[in-house]
Amino acid sequence: MTESAAVLDPRHAIEAAARSTARTLLYTAPVLDGAVALLADLWAAGERHGVHPDQLDVAYACLEAIRPRWRTGFPQTVEEALALLRVLVEEFATLGVTAQLDTDLARVLLPRGPSTPTWGYDHPADPPAPQLAVGVAIGELDGGWDLGLNLRGTRMVDVAALCDRAGAAAVARLAIEVNAGRRGSNLFQW
What we know:
Strand order of the largest sheet: 1-6-5-4-3-2
Number of helices: 7
Strand content: 5-15%
Order of helices and strands: HHEHHHHEEEEEH
Oligomer: single chain
Helix content: 40-55%
């Protein structure tokens, strides 16, 4: 595929726009799929009006436009958040990962694997290198999924996903990718 053809591929354009926010926000596959469908529709509408897709630089706007679809239904209590984290543990189990709910941190911890990034931690034996931790925040303003490390005061990265079982499944798949170093390996350098 040529560079110009790649630029005119809606998935490529959305993924490029999503990478621009990757230090603060990671998108799950279903959210990216929604943005890709919107962009493809916008490009098709533009072409019907004589506007070529390369004249419509709206990929990031598509990500923003679908924000209300996943920025709803946040847990409102600690009990609701812990219940959603228990669902997340179940979703990890269906994918073959034994994750652990740490109720003190209100986070689900993933076991380190051979390709898990060190995230800048250079003393892997004592104390052990940090683990990836998935959480869900309470409330409409700052609520939703996030990734961090199992260290107090760690920087958190928001995750674009619904706060339900389907969202938990998408978050589990994303977290496995991050934990394996296939995505976002430089998120938590310190």
